[in-house]
Each structure stands twice: as structure tokens, then as C-alpha cells.
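Researcher: Please generate the 3D structure of the following complex. Treat every line as part of one assembly.
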Amino acid sequence: MVNQSKTIDSVQAGAIALSAQGKTTEASARSLKREQDLPAVFKHMVARGPVVPVMVIKDMDQAIPLAEALLEAGLTVLEITLRTACALDAISSLRKRFPELFIGAGTLRQISQVSAVVDAGAQFAVSPGYDPELGETCRKHGLDLLPGIASASELMQANRDGFYFVKLFPAEAIGGIRLIQSFASPFAETMFCPTGGIDVSKARDYLALSNVACVGGSWMIPATALAAGDWLLIRDLASQAQALERAFTAQR
Ligand code: 3PG
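Model: Done. Output below.
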């Protein structure tokens, strides 16, 4: 079993700072004011890599070979969406089989899903939008939430409730790079995980922004490759994703 506390401690031990491709910028000089509020999911994502694959598992037979392909590529933070009948079973089964992975439940929308997700063993959750009650329920259950936001108003509300690491969703449909750049100054303490409509080339552009901690997406799991069981292609696309550079770094 991976020593999560060790991983978290190693990140906590060092100051998390923003840097942009080795150059000192106004943003890189700025320390995160709310580092103490950042959840373990953020620390894992910073420690482990720049891309979070979003997995829609319709068939349990796909779960293990798909996770193996992603793991072989070095992607170790996975989001399994709660959009299919076997999603909870997939979370539970992958948690047992691959303790080195850090597995979250995506598309969390209802309060009633929280305890089921915790029972399945999910280590974090991702919601497409921001719901203060859902956030509070996750806190009560000790479940780290990466909440989705799509506007300045939603982000203000999320910040007010202590969420400084958010998913920008659906990123490409709502302004993507330009929106995150526009948020950088008024929301200086917020880190983003843009998700929705992103491919490898767009991911590269997002990851050049100093307030983007990671990028989420399903581009490395094409539906045709999944249906055909083309794990080699998925592994290659995942390796390409894992190799992406990011401006945001945790300096230890
Ligand atoms: C989702 O929750 O569906 C994610 O945003 C994935 O989006 P994508 O399939 O467009 O990458």
C-alpha cells in the first residue's frame, strides 16, 4: 500500500510555490496564501503528475486492463465517473488491486452518493459544479472534493467555503485558457484543474499557465480503443500525457 502520508508530508514539507518554466515571474514569486487549506487530493496531484484521466467504465472487464495501461504509462491519479452502473464496483476493485493508485469518484452530484463513494474506497471526489451542501457533506465524511466551477460567482462561493483547488468545467466550452488567465489576478490563491473538451495539444497550453496544477480529460482513452481493448494505444496516449511539462511545480 502506498504510504500516502509520506507523499503528502514530502509535499507539505517544502513550500509550494508557483514557477513558470524556470523563470521568476510576478506569479512565481507569490506564495500560496491558503496552502493549509489545500486538500490531500491537491498534494497528490502536484506530487504525482500533470494529468488526471477521466474514466467512464461501462464494463467491469475493462477496468483492470485500462488501469494497468494508465499505470504503466505513469498516470497514478485516476477519476472514475459515477455515470455507469459499475462505477462503484470499479472503484472498489481497482483500490484493492492497485494500492499504488490514487482513485477518485467523478461526476459527484448528489449528497446521497457521498457515503457510497466513501464505502467504495474512493480517495477523493470530483463534482461537475459547485454545491455548498455537497462540499460540506464531503468534509463531514473526510472525503476530499475537487469541486467544479464555471464562473467568478461560483469560484467566490467555493473560495468562501475553503476550496482553493477547483475544476474548471467544462473548460473548453466556457473560455478555457482565456478564462483561467482572467481569473489569475482576482483569484490569485486559486489553482485550477481544467477539464472538458481537452486534448493533448490543448493540455500542453493549459499546463503552461502557472495557476494550472493539473489537467483532466478522457482524450487518452478513445472510445474506439476502449471498445476494442487496444490497451497499447491507450498506454501510448497516456505516456504522452504523463510526459507533458507544466509550469506549476511543488518545490521541495
Ligand atoms: C468529464 O467529467 O466528463 C470530464 O470533463 C471529461 O471531459 P472530456 O471527456 O471532454 O475530456
